[in-house]
């Protein structure tokens, strides 16, 4: 069991990150035309705006919260907020955006599975990644109930230490996950797997942040003129 824990939380993250970096570079270099989200809005706009907006707002907030929460050392924020307080904030804010993301993803997944036009053009990878994201969200929301059983912030600090040891290439990262609840282990393992799968799926479009959209000039749209009619003389 220790070997599995060591592989999942000490070795597997580096395998996933290496495949993520090399795979994204290779896909952009050799398959630039496949670098897209595969939107289905042209096939059917029903529920698309609600599902997409709720999902993307929720997932971006969750990812940002995870990055800040896991990678910020405890010594940085302990003078401002205690570990139990930080855990409570993470549970409340993460829960709200998690539910928002869950509703949005439910709509998007339902469109993929039950809209005949969209289902006919969806690939197996598209459906698979949505199902995996759905499972990841369920695990994340379920972890809130586990966290409610120990509000001392201890497990949250261990998860942060694990992430910080991984990104700084320090040994012993797996030790912080050894006694974690199985839901936390499953949530982290599936998250690493999603990173590994990113270069081969539609998730690759997370790199394409439309920053230029904020500064681009307005598009000039002119009304089509009525055709000129000439009177016969």
Give a verbal description of the structure.
With 233 residues, this protein is mainly alpha-helical. It is 64% helix and 0% strand. It contains eight helices and no strands. It has helices spanning 2-30, 48-71, 74-77, 83-114, 116-121, 124-147, 154-167, 182-197. Helix 2 (48-71) packs antiparallel against helix 4. The longest helix has 32 residues, at 83-114. The chain is elongated and about 95 Å long. The N and C termini lie far apart (96 Å). The mean pLDDT is 87.
Kindly summarize this structure in a few lines:
Helix content is 64%, strand content 0%. It has 233 residues and is mainly alpha-helical.
Shape by Cα distribution: elongated
Mean pLDDT: 87
* Annotation, overall tally of beta strands: 0
Percentage of β-strand residues: under 5%
What is the helical fraction, as a range of percent? 55-70%
Helices and strands, in N-to-C order?
HHHHHHHH
Largest sheet: none
Contiguous runs where pLDDT drops below 50 for at least 5 residues = none
* Radius of gyration computed on alpha carbons: 22 Å
């Amino acid at each position: 069991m220790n070997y599995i824990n060591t592989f999942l939380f000490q070795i597997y993250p580096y395998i996933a990150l290496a495949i993520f970096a090399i795979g994204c570079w290779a896909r952009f270099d050799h398959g630039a035309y496949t670098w897209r989200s595969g939107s289905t809005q042209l096939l059917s706009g029903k529920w698309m705006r609600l599902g997409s907006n709720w999902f993307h707002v929720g997932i971006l907030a969750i990812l940002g919260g995870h990055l800040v929460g896991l990678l910020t050392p405890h010594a940085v924020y302990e003078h401002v907020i205690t570990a139990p307080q930080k855990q409570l904030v993470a549970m409340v804010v993460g829960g709200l955006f998690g539910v928002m993301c869950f509703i949005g993803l439910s709509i998007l997944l339902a469109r993929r599975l039950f809209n005949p036009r969209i289902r006919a053009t969806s690939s197996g990878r598209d459906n698979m990644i949505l199902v995996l994201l759905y499972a990841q969200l369920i695990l994340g929301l379920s972890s809130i109930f586990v966290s409610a059983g120990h509000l001392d912030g201890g497990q949250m600090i261990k998860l942060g230490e694990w992430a910080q040891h991984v990104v700084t290439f320090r040994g012993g990262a797996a030790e912080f996950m050894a006694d974690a609840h199985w839901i936390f282990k499953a949530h982290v393992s599936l998250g690493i797997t999603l990173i590994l799968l990113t270069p081969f799926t539609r998730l690759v479009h997370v790199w394409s942040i439309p920053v230029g959209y904020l500064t681009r000039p307005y598009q000039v749209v002119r009304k089509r003129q009525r055709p000129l009619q000439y009177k016969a003389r």
